[in-house]
């Protein structure tokens, strides 16, 4: 069915995410321990979008933990950070000073491409910073080498985990007092297609923070 206005745009979303533990430092097994209520509602499902990836988010004063669980993928994830449109990847946008009505990214907005496997680093998981079009003011670039990542391949698909240190998100130091942040994500899969969080790239989600949703940070 074709919509003049996608149903997912008829609402403003404020989703709660739970507190979680920081990664333990173990070299194998799960990187994160996210509770069940970390699983996000995907508003794009209201538009008839097939949801093939469960997205979970948790937080604490030291950073953000994000997990993507892709089901129904017949082969292991593949990607190249130089060719994102052809890669299996999670695209992330985070705003540590969300206002809900600002149409141009500020210095508190961040964008990352997260790859469960990247040919540029011998097929290992990787995260790279992405520019945001028309972003106001300069901000210090995040050091993505400090991010922690882990990919778990199974017969149904894969799970990809990312830990983003708060030190690499401008403005995160005060996030405990603010209690919320802006968030958007887009899952791209070479076999299953695209899964936006709310709407696809027909809308300015890559640079307009007013199209992102808000995450309420529970303690």
Provide a descriptive summary of the structure in words.
By secondary structure, the chain is mostly beta strands. It has one domain: Immunoglobulin-like, CATH 2.60.40.1190. The chain is built from one helix and eleven strands; from the N terminus they run ββββββββαβββ. The strands form two sheets. Strands 1, 4, 5, 6, 9, 10 and 11 form a seven-stranded mixed beta sheet that branches. A four-stranded antiparallel beta sheet has the order 2-3-8-7, with no helix packed on it. The mean pLDDT is 93.
According to CATH, what is the topology?
Immunoglobulin-like
Q: What sequence of helices (H) and strands (E) makes up the elements?
A: EEEEEEEEHEEE
Q: How does CATH name the architecture?
A: Sandwich
* Number of structural units classed as domains: 1
Helix content: under 10%
Global structural class: mainly beta
Task: Give the end-to-end Cα distance, rounded to a whole number of Å.
Answer: 40 Å
Strand content: 35-45%
**How many strand elements?**
11
CATH class: Mainly Beta
Largest sheet: 7 strands, mixed
Stretches where pLDDT is under 50 for at least 5 consecutive residues are: none
Q: Radius of gyration from the CA trace?
A: 16 Å
Topology of helices and strands:
Layout: E1 14-17, E2 53-60, E3 63-71, E4 89-95, E5 109-118, E6 124-129, E7 148-154, E8 157-165, H1 175-178, E9 180-189, E10 193-196, E11 213-217
Parallel strand pairs: 1-11
Antiparallel strand pairs: 2-3, 3-8, 4-5, 4-9, 5-6, 7-8, 9-10, 9-11
